[in-house]
């Protein structure tokens, strides 16, 4: 048993990200919390040391090395881990990550039925959240993979007309009809 901080002990080998969050008295959020909700990611997550900064909601504004400190969490947190609630994780990702990285996280949560685009849109008012709302415009009602979402976005931006989950006579349903 290892003392993590006063009153907090770890048995065996604790998860490095969880350990860092507990030591910082913070919650994992954004891309660092995505695996705890089973969200899609463009890049394979590594340890904080391998993948760069850890994304935390510390709530105190004190800079920490190798930490991207996000806003304070406003929604119910994970029930037993030091992980921000799904809504906060996605809102932080929409404001922090590049467009496609945020898109696949939001799309996976929407496709799983865990959150709605409308809920997220209501939480992103004003001009400063315009880019985040633009990502929400790319979310489709149903997607089976991150490749499907990215392909659709690229096809549309290339000027092609796209129908998702179209029925083709003699074939059945296709993911993407151009």
| Alpha-beta classification | alpha+beta
Q: Kindly, what is the distance between the CA atoms of the first and last residues, rounded to a whole number of angstroms?
A: 58 Å
CA gyration radius, whole angstroms:
18 Å
Total domains, how many? 2
Largest sheet geometry: 3 strands, mixed
Strand tally is 7
Shape: elongated
Q: How are strands sequenced across the largest beta sheet?
A: 3-4-5
Would you tell me the overall average pLDDT? 89
Helix content: 25-40%
H/E topology pattern = EEHEHEEHHHHHEE
Low-confidence stretches: none
State the helix count: 7
User: Hey, roughly how much beta strand do the residues contain?
Assistant: 15-25%
Any overview of this molecule?
The chain is of the alpha+beta class and 178 residues long. The protein has two domains: 2-139, no CATH class; 140-178, no CATH class. Helix content is 34%, strand content 16%. It has seven helices and seven strands; from the N terminus they run ββαβαββαααααββ. The chain has helices at 16-23, 48-51, 86-96, 99-111, 117-122, 130-136, 146-157, and strands at 2-5, 8-10, 27-28, 54-57, 67-69, 163-168, 172-177. It has a three-stranded mixed sheet. Strands 1-2 form a two-stranded antiparallel sheet. Helix 3 (86-96) runs antiparallel to helix 4 and helix 4 (99-111) crosses helix 6. The longest helix has 13 residues, at 99-111. The protein is elongated. The N and C termini lie far apart (58 Å). The mean pLDDT is 89.
């Amino acid at each position: 048993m290892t003392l993590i901080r006063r009153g907090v002990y770890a048995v065996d080998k604790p998860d490095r990200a969880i350990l860092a969050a507990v030591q910082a008295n913070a919650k994992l959020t954004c891309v660092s919390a995505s695996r705890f909700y089973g969200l899609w990611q463009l890049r394979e997550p590594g340890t904080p040391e391998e993948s760069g900064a850890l994304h935390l909601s510390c709530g105190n504004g004190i800079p920490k090395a190798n930490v991207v400190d996000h806003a304070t969490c406003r929604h119910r947190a994970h029930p037993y881990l030091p992980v921000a609630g799904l809504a906060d994780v996605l809102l932080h990702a929409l404001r922090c990550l590049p467009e496609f990285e945020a898109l696949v996280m939001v799309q996976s949560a929407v496709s799983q039925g865990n959150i709605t685009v409308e809920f997220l849109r209501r939480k992103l008012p004003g001009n400063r959240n315009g880019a985040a709302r633009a990502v929400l415009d790319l979310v489709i009602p149903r997607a089976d993979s991150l490749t499907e979402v990215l392909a659709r976005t690229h096809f549309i931006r290339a000027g092609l007309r796209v129908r998702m989950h179209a029925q083709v006579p003699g074939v059945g349903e296709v993911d993407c009809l151009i």
